[in-house]
Write a structure and sequence with these properties.
- The chain is 51% helix and 16% strand.
- It has 354 residues and is an alpha/beta fold.
- Strand 10 (286-289) and strand 11 (294-297) form a beta hairpin.
- It has an eleven-stranded mixed sheet with strand order 3-2-1-4-11-10-5-6-9-7-8, sandwiched between helices.
- The chain has two domains: 1-117 and 291-320, Isopropylmalate Dehydrogenase; 127-282, Isopropylmalate Dehydrogenase (3-Layer(aba) Sandwich), CATH 3.40.718.
- The chain has helices at residues 15-28, 40-49, 72-78, 83-92, 105-116, 152-169, 192-203, 216-219, 229-254, 258-277, 304-319, 322-353, and strands spanning 2-7, 32-38, 57-61, 98-101, 126-133, 137-142, 177-181, 207-212, 224-226, 286-289, 294-297.
- It comes from Neisseria animaloris.
């Protein structure tokens, strides 16, 4: 049985989204249990109204709620009994295998990092997300906003944790192909940090295919795309804006005349399939990678369907035992990298002696 801790009070709409989303998820996953964290009376009332399967739900009381615009450090200092923090504590204490929240992203990251700490060898956690690409493929991209400035070593660490997560969830696909997001595929392009990261990745045992451009996110040519949080967040928001724009433009064109309205009726099955395939709710649920615990961030403004998908993401990670596999992979990769660096330093010293 997989147990997930849910911040029931988090997000723009709180219980009106998290409870129906939780009920929908439980209907699909009969081998899952939920710990709904929040104000006991309010959570119980909402669950009763939603006819929730209470035999697979525990309620954990939390007296505080982190506001969506609350500064992360203040939330961390002053909201020690918030639904967000108590949900993360459930993971730390071993009561749940993953935590899910639609609350304040900055506060969630700060709290999760403080409570769970990072995996040994990982300096900073990253925000990762699976995105749809060609031929029903999924591409994992990170970092999507947790770290605006990154060193080459940190980009290397992102590649390691991204590779290990992808392999844990999709073992049948073999060694994940890693691409470093850049302004061109040539080795000579990019900032000095990107060039240094390229060298580190090339010397690692990861399946590094080289620099990739933005279109690689959707082409299916790589499994994991690595970027710093500034670039990654810009790419993600651009994708979200482009999808929304295209959807609106298509809808507008089909409403332009009686002829196009008739054409829309004929094309309806294809349009419905397109809408479902790129429905952002299906890809709701960003993963905080690099922590000693599984934490999934739902979009704060999503609906119940989107929140159910965020729970689904956490369920898959927990079921695949991704955390243990990531920790093992990180230890192995970083040990290998340290060994190669030592060999390189010894070679330089030998050359200087000669």
């Amino acid at each position: 049985m997989i147990t997930l801790a849910v911040d029931a009070m988090g997000g723009d709409a709180g219980l009106s989204v998290t409870v129906p989303g939780a009920v929908s998820f439980l209907k699909q996953r009969t081998d899952a249990r939920l710990i709904m964290v929040g104000d006991d009376a309010l959570v119980r009332e909402a669950l009763t109204a939603a006819n929730a399967p209470m035999e697979r739900i525990d309620i954990c009381h939390a007296s505080q709620v982190v506001a969506m615009d609350e500064p992360p450090q203040l939330a961390l200092k002053n909201k020690k009994d918030s639904s967000m923090r108590v949900a993360i504590n459930q993971v730390k204490e071993g009561n749940a295998q993953a935590a899910v929240s639609a609350g304040n992203t900055g506060a969630l990251m700060a709290t999760a990092r403080f409570v769970l700490k990072t995996i040994p060898g990982i300096e900073r956690p990253a925000i990762a997300k699976f995105l749809p690409s060609a031929d029903n493929h999924m591409t994992l991209m990170l970092d999507l906003g947790a770290n605006v400035d990154c060193s080459a070593d940190q980009l290397m660490q992102f590649a390691v944790i991204g590779s290990e997560l992808f392999q844990a969830l999709y073992p049948e696909k073999g060694r994940p192909r890693i691409g470093l997001l850049n302004v061109g595929t040539e080795e000579i392009k990019g900032t000095e940090t990107i060039k240094q990261a390229f060298e580190l990745l090339q010397s690692s045992s990861l399946n590094f295919v080289g620099n990739v451009e933005g279109n690689a996110v959707f082409s299916g040519e790589v499994d994991v795309v690595v970027a710093d949080g500034f670039v990654g967040n810009v790419v993600l928001k651009t994708i979200e804006g482009a999808v929304k724009f295209l959807g609106g433009a298509i809808k507008h064109e089909f409403k332009a005349s009686l002829f196009t309205k008739a054409a829309a009726l004929v094309a309806f099955p294809a349009l419905k399939g397109f809408k479902n395939k790129f429905d952002p709710r299906r890809f709701n649920g960003a993963i905080f990678l690099g922590l000693r615990g599984v934490v999934v961030k739902s979009h704060g403004g999503t609906d119940a369907t989107g929140f159910a998908y965020a729970l689904e993401e956490a369920y898959h990670e927990a079921r695949a035992d991704s955390l243990d596999k990531i920790e093992q992979g990180v230890a192995s990769q970083l040990a290998l990298l340290a060994e190669k660096r030592l060999e390189s330093e010894q070679a330089v010293m030998a050359d200087n002696i000669e």
